[in-house]
Amino acid sequence: MRVLRGSPTTWEPPSPDGLAVAIGVFDGVHRGHRTVLADLAAEAQLHGSGRAAVTFDPHPLTVIDPDRALRLLGTVDQRIGWLAAEGVDVVAVLPFPEIRTLTPSEFADQVLRDGLGARAVVVGTDFRFGKDREGDVATLRSVGARAGFVVDAVPLLAEDHSPLSSSRIRDLVASGDVEAAADLLGRPYIMRGPVVRGDGRGKTIGVPTANIAYPPEVVVPKVGVYAGRVTVGGSPYPAVTNIGIRPTFDGDEVTVEAHLIDWEGDLYDCVIDVEITRRLRNEQKFASVDELVAQIHRDIAEART
Q1: Pairing of strands 210-212, 235-244
Q2: pTM
Q3: pLDDT value for 250
Q4: Cβ distance 116 to 12 under 8 Å?
Q5: pLDDT at residue 96 is higher than 90
Q6: What would the pLDDT profile of 142-193 be if each residue is shown by its tens digit?
Q7: CA 60 vs CA 68, 80, 169, 180: distances in Å
Q8: Whether 173 contacts 189, CB under 8 Å
């Protein structure tokens, strides 16, 4: 898979066969996004072309409304990996602050026609684009007729009478309802980050943990203890993950610490995926370290089950 970054004027010329192109932020690449990507695959087959996805970094809302505290369902690199897993051949990561001033016509010409050689473009029915969001699906079809591509608008997937959206999933994760979030995502919520050195207290009480330096732009699940898995070097291991301030030790900063069950080794500086599958309990302050350790072992037994 090929990744394009920066201004489309700097990209290599597109293939003569062109591409079928899907456009969206694709935060989380959830089940709703996958309906768009399924239509993308059909359009690519129809036109005998490869598949491309156009996404944006940073998220447009963080630029348009910087006072809005928006946390994402994954990093850009995670997003690229999820799109690749859906069969996308090219991912174009557009710098939103630079391209937001393009008119719909300029966006169609510079990004879709000249940058990607678009033969077909797939978007959601609520798609808006161009300076001040002045373009919609009808606009895209109009500029596409001139630029040489057709447009397929995919209705938004809805469940429980509500659109399946990234914002809905973000709210579920933030509230700790990771099982409902996983149902909409089509996979468990995953936090990725390098393992950094903490205070080493877990090791001293016989329950070593990997302290994850999670990216500041991602959603952090509600403080509590979770069951899940940790993927190290492509191999998954069952785990218990504590998200919180460690009140028994008078902590005041939210950390993400995972204990890998039945695993030993040094994870420092490794980048790992922490899968948050099921909420076990709230974080609580214990009267003694012994009480805390006893509860941790109960958490491990429940997570193992």
Answers
A1: unpaired
A2: 0.93
A3: 63
A4: no
A5: yes
A6: 999 999 999 999 998 888 778 899 999 999 999 999 999 999 999 999 999 9
A7: 11, 17, 18, 26
A8: yes
The answer to whether 63 touches 97, Cβ cutoff 8 Å, is yes
Beta strands 162-163; 255-260: pairing state? unpaired
CA distance 81 to 87: 10
Task: Say which of 217, 257, 264, 283 is annotated catalytic.
Answer: 257
257 is catalytic: yes
Which residues on adjacent β-strands are paired with residue 72?
218
Q: What tens digit of pLDDT does each residue of 184-228 get?
A: 999 999 999 999 987 767 777 888 999 999 999 999 999 999 999
Contact 61, 138 (CB under 8 A): no
Looking at residue 248, its pLDDT comes to 62
Residues 6+ apart with CB under 8 A from 39: 22, 122, 152, 154
Q: Do the strands 162-163 and 224-232 form a parallel or antiparallel pair, or are they unpaired?
A: unpaired
**CA gap 89, 46 in Å, rounded:** 16
- Report residue 102 as tokens: 């393009």
Instruction: Report the distance separating Cα 176 and Cα 199, nearest Å.
Output: 26
